[in-house]
């Protein structure tokens, strides 16, 4: 490989690294929500798939039906984390600028 080709490749790799770092910082600020039971349980998560907040409508709290509340919380958390995962994948793919488009489906780069 010619020196100019190697320099171009290094520049491209550095730009990719900068884009990925910027995208990861943006993901910390990104907030998504999941809900269950028509919104009686809502969960807020960030783009790093960390749960930030859980809100439960007072009317759904029934000491006689603890299992239903647990199911609603589980469903809302799973939806919020799914939304966070999808937003994260979209953000990181955009940061890669198509460079990662040639990777096999399901291939993940550690940390991204």
Structural class: alpha+beta
- Give the tally of structural domains: 1
CATH topology: Ybab, Chain: A
Q: Note poorly predicted spans.
A: none
**Strand order, largest beta sheet:** 1-2-3
Describe the biggest sheet?
Answer: 3 strands, antiparallel
Arithmetic mean of pLDDT: 84
**Shape from CA axes?**
rod-shaped
Any idea what the CATH architecture is? Answer: 2-Layer Sandwich
Q: Radius of gyration from the CA trace?
A: 20 Å
CATH classification class: Alpha Beta
Number of strands: 3
Strand content: 15-25%
The separation of the N and C termini measures: 29 Å
Residue share in helix: 40-55%
CATH homologous superfamily, by name? Answer: Nucleoid-associated protein YbaB-like domain
* Total helical segments: 2
Give the ordered list of helices and strands.
HEEEH
Provide tags for this entry:
alpha+beta; Ybab, Chain: A; 3-stranded antiparallel β-sheet; 16% strand
Task: Write up what this structure looks like.
- The longest helix has 31 residues, at 66-96.
- A three-stranded antiparallel sheet has the order 1-2-3.
- The radius of gyration is 20 Å and the shape is rod-shaped.
- The protein starts with a helix and ends in a 16-residue tail after the last helix.
- It has helices at 3-29, 66-96, and strands at residues 31-36, 41-46, 51-56.
- The protein has one domain (10-96): Ybab, Chain: A, CATH 3.30.1310.10.
- The chain has two helices and three strands, in the order αβββα.
- The chain has 112 residues and is α+β, with helices and mostly antiparallel strands.
- It is 52% helix and 16% strand.
- Helix 1 (3-29) packs antiparallel against helix 2.
